[in-house]
Each structure stands twice: as C-alpha cells, then as structure tokens.
Amino acid sequence: MILPPRPFRAIAALAVVFLVAAGPSSGAVPPLEKAVPATTSPAATAPASSPSAKTEPAAGSDVVGNSVVKVFSTMRYPDPYRPWTKQAPADVTGSGVVIEGKRILTNAHVVLYASQVQVQANQAGDKLSATVEMVAPGIDLAILKLDDESFFDSHPPVIRTHTLPDIKDTVLAYGFPTGGSSLSITKGIVSRIEFTPYNYPVSGLRIQIDAAINPGNSGGPAFVGDQMIGLAFSRFGGGDNIGYIIPNEEIELFLADCADGHYDGKPALFDEFQTLENPSLRAFLKIDKSVSGLVVHRPMADDTADPLKKWDVITHIGDTPIDDQGMILIGHNLRVGSGYLIQKIAKNGKLPITIVRAGKELKVEMDTHQNHPLLIPDVQGEYPPYFVYGPFVFSKATVPFLSFFNNNANSMVAFSFVHSPLVARRGDTPAFPGEELVVVASPFFPHKLAKGYSNPSGSVVRSINGTEVKNLAHLVTLLRDLKDDYVTFEFEHRGGETMVFPRKEMVAATEDILTDNGVRAQASPEMLALWNTKQK
Questions:
Q1: Can you spell out the DSSP letters for 245-285?
Q2: In what side-by-side order are the strands of the sheet with 461-464?
C-alpha cells in the first residue's frame, strides 16, 4: 500500500548537517526472544493490554542503566556529486540497548555508513569497539556485536514486553541526548499508536510519546513499568514533545528475519488503493451498503498475472474486515491501517484476501513483496557507482543526488521547464528490468576537450552515438566497445547541446585527468571490471 514519506527527522546527534534517509524514501531515508506469531484473525487475538500494575524502574537503576549504552559512530557518507570519494568524516552519537544473544540494538541511522563504531556503558570510562552485524534502513533498526563480549557479563539484556502499551501509560525514555554526557531519563505518556510509513517503502507500527526525545536519544529504549516497549528513533520537528518509538512488535519481526544471518524485509502490497467513503463511488460500483473495504485504484502489475483488477473492493485481509477508510480494529479501542495485517498474516510470500468484483465475492491469494523498486532509488547504505570518461563523471540518479532540489524552488522549476526525467519520472518504477537514469554527476573536469560546451552537471544521458542508454553498465559497455572516430552524447531534456568528442583523445586523456584531480580509480569496482573486460 503506497503511502507518502514521513515528515519526521532522524535524531542522531550529527556534528555536521547531512541526512541520508530512504525516499520515495525521504526524498532526501531504513523487531523478545520469540517472534509474534501470525494469525488469521488479528482482531480477535489482538495484542493484550499491558499489565495493570506497572512498577517504574528506579531512575538509573542497575537493571536499566547498565543495559543502556552510548553509541559513537564515525560516518563516511557518500558524496553524490563527487562519487569517486566520500564526504569528510562526521561524528555521530546515539544510544543503544543490550538484548539477548550478546547483542546491542540501536537505530540504523546511528550506524549507517559508519567506518568506526564504539559503545560506552553508563558511568564507564572506556569505549569498546563494535561492528554492525545487521542493518535495516527501512524500519531503522540495527544490531551491533562487540569485540569484547565479556562486557555482557555485567550488562544483562533488558526485559521486553510482548504487548503493546495502553494509551496514557506512563513511559520513561532512556538515552544519551545532547546537553550532557551521562544517562538521561525523560518521562511522559503514550499518546497514540498507529500503523504508518517509516522509510520508503516500509510501513509499521509506531508509538507516539510526549516524553522529551532529542538528538542522541536515537536507539535508546523506552519503558512502561519495568519492561521495554520499544526503541526511540525520531521526533516531529514541527511540534512540541512529539517523539516516536519503534514498538517491540516491529523489533521482533526484525530479529526473527535476521535469525538466518540475512535481512529480507517486511512483506507488503504495493498496489494503489482508495477509500470507499464517497457515496457516488459506492453507487457507481453498485456496492451494497453492507459491504465495506478499500477500492483498488491501480494494480501493481497491469497484466493478467495480478489477481487484483481496477475497481475491485478488498473487504477482508485474512478473516478480518476492513472499513471504508481502510482501517481495522485491534482489540476494543485501537484502530490502525489495514496494512498492519499483512505482516501478521502473510506466510511464504502469500496473503489471503477477500474481494468483491462486479457484485461477486471472491477469495484471492496475493503475492507479497519486500521491496518496490524505483527508477530513482535511495542508496540504502551503499555508495553510488560511477565512471570517468575524459572530463565526464557519470553515475546513476539516486535520492541523495536529487538533494540539490531541497529548499531550492528555482532549480525545481528550471528542471521541470526543460522536462528533465529527474523531475518528470521522480516516482516512476523502472520501465524495463535494469533501467536506470544515467546522470552527469559533476561539472566537467578541467580539460581542453570540453572547450565551448556548457556545464552538463545534472543532465541525464539519452544516447551514445544514437544508441539509447539503458543504465550505467550499458553506458560503460557502449563506450568500451565503440570503434567510431567520434563519440556523441545526447541528453534527455529540452534545449541543451549535443556533445561530440574525438573518441581516441577522450580515452587517452582520462588517465591524466584522474591524476590531475586526485581521483584514485576511473570507476567504481563493478564498472571498472566491466570497462576492463575485453569485447567478445
């Protein structure tokens, strides 16, 4: 179920301002000892309420205080405009909590792109080296392992509740936010619980609290009574005391997924839906008043393989009914988006649903997916590929590359006016397998070959010598195998120039250009291997 990105900012304490989150991702960004079992009737077996007797742990008590750690990360973020290098090191601090298996749980954004990670216990003087064992940017969770596991002899795992808290429950948030160096504990209540987008394309349960959550709290545990209810990860910048917790149910799904040493991701549907609230829509579809559900607006696949068709009405997921706003009831007083049922019910990539089509009720089994590829994807902890050819630097369009549009209406208008695919196809899926937008990542390197041409930075390559470019690897292959005397570049926007260069001189000049500009390698490893492969 495709939803817009969340407007909340990640809260790791950054020494420099730079945020990589999942788009349509962020536009800029990604779960007890036993996984929560799936059920075909979540409404009837909703998460139980927390115990009525809730004893708050003593502030700074050994049980909690010894299990919360400060996380120090040295980040090397990608530089989308100089993809042959990385940004300067940035120091980030966050929080973490000890869990079973001699592991530390924290947020993905605290350690994503970290070249070095260390942890420090409360009231301890030494920092211990750690490695990132697993990271999931979509749900913003990560697992750390320590080089010295004797640390866990005196720092036991916290107890995690198997249930969701109640609204108005008193909550304590532990962590190491800015403003001091010792453990901080803030107090508030549980304000609301929702199923909502995280980092594209992932959605999940989210707990809102009014306890103060500040930069550096990321990855710290939140407690109701003496049990952890989730992990702090974000706050809403446009309001006061609006902080967000990743609940234990999401943590359990994450840990269960990681048990085999690989994180696959959460199951989801990426068809587009609309509500059935409008009476004219209901009359048009000839839907009886007794029927409620979600209307299929656009199926994920426009072919016969997709069991959903436009105007189908999804009335049940599993055995649970869906209302006309696409919501379901959990227990007696918690109403959340119906997408929550997917992660509860789906098994082996299959999801049973009930639809109404042309007045007839049908039982359908849907395929679920962990990812929804975009033509312009987020980098998800990777570094963008690149290729240097003469004075050009080519890369693929990614969400971080488009960050120059942020708070820059003039650039957005200019790129829209020339109908650049960076704007026109911003939310598209690939038109064919492997499709990428190949961009000129930076201005020309200084060289006489570029004399008289305009700065091509931000241009999308349409073709080379008349052959349309499918992706960056295809561009490298075309240039490698080219035998013509001249190489001609055309770009995918109105106006601009067609650029023509002598092929042999471009190849010959590349090494000198790399040396003059301190670029260590002509291409990222995969592109370089492709360039050095002899034509068959």
A1: EEEHHHHHHHHHHHTTS------B---EEEES--HHHHHHH
A2: 467-468, 461-464, 486-491, 499-502
Any domain includes 54: no
Domain span at residue 29 reads 9-39+59-258
**Chain segment 423-475, per-residue pLDDT in tens:** 999 999 999 999 999 999 999 999 999 999 999 999 999 999 999 999 999 99
**83 inside domain:** yes
Known catalytic residues?
109, 218
Q: Are 471 and 384 in contact (CB under 8 A)?
A: no
Residue 494 above 50 pLDDT? yes
Q: Verify that 358 and 392 share a domain, yes or no.
A: no
- pTM confidence score: 0.85
Based on the fold, state whether residues 212 and 331 are members of the same structural domain.
no
- The answer to whether residues 349 and 416 belong to one domain is no
N-terminal to C-terminal alpha carbon distance within the chain: 45
The CATH number covering residue 484 comes to 3.20.190.20
Q: How far is CA 106 from CA 39, 133, 172, 247, in A?
A: 28, 11, 17, 13
User: 20 in helix, strand or coil?
Assistant: coil
Domain count within the chain: 3
CA-closest candidate to residue 504, choices 387, 389, 394, 392: 389
d(CA 189, CA 166): 9
